[in-house]
């Protein structure tokens, strides 16, 4: 069971949410989620549905919450439209998700920023590490066909479906991509880590983002 399902169950356990309909991709995750809900004593307040059937849900909800899951949808525009249709009056749409290039097809500018940053790190941090590259579509489909399937469509869809949406872009070009394979070699509170986060913030303000948080009241 992924962390996002654990977060949802913790909200049920804390009494902050009355009931969750949880959408999961794989049967094994659904089974793990049900088992965990049983352990926490919230199984009667959690309904698990496979992703393949989520579009058939017709209920109205006070909250539609996507936590690092919207980018796994094959058609993100349809998923955002579905979200709006499922919201009750004054319902809240909430999202914390990857909104970067679909299939991780990083732009040349993103790759340049990442590799320039890495070249300035200590040699011991980069030992054995290769330059950041763009994966092939074939590789992405082989590893996980749902990964960032249509993520580039998320922000345009949010702005189209929720005209009053508040979007906070949270970066990621450095912390997600440039540090992905070397973070374990960088000490907490080190100058390298502080510099990485500062550069990431600056790039975010320049429009280079892999992640965003969004809120909108229907």
Automatic annotation (TrEMBL):
SUPFAM superfamilies, sorted: S-adenosyl-L-methionine-dependent methyltransferases
Superkingdom classification of source: Bacteria
Annotated protein name in UniProt: Methyltransferase domain-containing protein
